[in-house]
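Bench notes, afternoon.
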Amino acid sequence: MKGEPTSASAAGAPGPGKVRFGTGTTVKDFDDYHRWLEVGEQAGCFELLTTGDSQSLWADPFVSLAVAAERTARPRLGVTVSNPMTRHPAVVASSLVALQRLSGGRMFYGLSSGDSALRNIGVRPATVTELEEFGVAVKTLCAGRTATWQGAELQLRWGSYPVPLWMAAEGPRTQYLAGQIADGVVLSNALDADVLALARANLAAGAASMGRSIEDIEIWCMAAMCLADSEEEGVARLESQLAGTANHVYRFHMDGKGLPDEYREAIATLMHRYDSSVHATPDRAAANAELVRELGLVELLARRSVIAGPPERCVERIREVAGVGATNLIVSQFVNDPLEFMETFADRIAPAFADPLP
């Protein structure tokens, strides 16, 4: 990598534009997943349908996305996110090329250092250097060129189909790397103006170091969403998700991520006590939810990652975050009835954003 991350002032906020939506699920039952894909596509408002890669907690993403490729025709499909530690880049690239062919070019591949997939099998996260080498190797192989991985030359001899590389990037170094090599970026905990500005600055610096522009990179923000009678009730239902997001974002360090000093001790305690065996499983994660309440972190974390309440409040909140630049939102579905959630979102929230922002 060349150069270093820079300050927030180096990257301007994006101009007005249309708000775009994606959503994702974790697959445990394929009958349920078939219905989820049907409703997600019929909703007409989700540009992305995604899943994750955490082998101990849910089904293999490449199997799930093969199902999605066959059962949908319009949305883009992708993994948000995978990691370099449980797979070989040639194996990943071969799967992605096959998925691109099945989907007609709708696939993207998200990458990060690894979290619950690794914690649950006792494997360390990838380093930034490993992320770079792995991501470049996968992208190169998919494009039909020879790649290098750990000193070995790799090649797919049966076919090729370029696949956009995305990265989940939470800190200055990974955001800078994403600016250098990624086609898309997923940000967690970034619905706040200051945090988003820091991320954009790092992405812009990384892009500039390679002769690229930040405009070459799709920036999507994760938004934990819950429809409820009030915003307070919705936030309360998402407390275990707040814990999981914080554990992920700050798992290596807290520097350069816009975290006020007064919260550092509480975040450190949360990470020490967080239970990864029930990550992204709200019905079993009461202890994780209790952590954010006990440590006084609910308000801070909700401001950075949550959209909740009745539909009209969700519309207001989306306008608020779009106003600071978060115009591409992947809304998570930590709800009792995901199908009803998507139908309500399509009927009562998405129409407010059918046209570009004023």
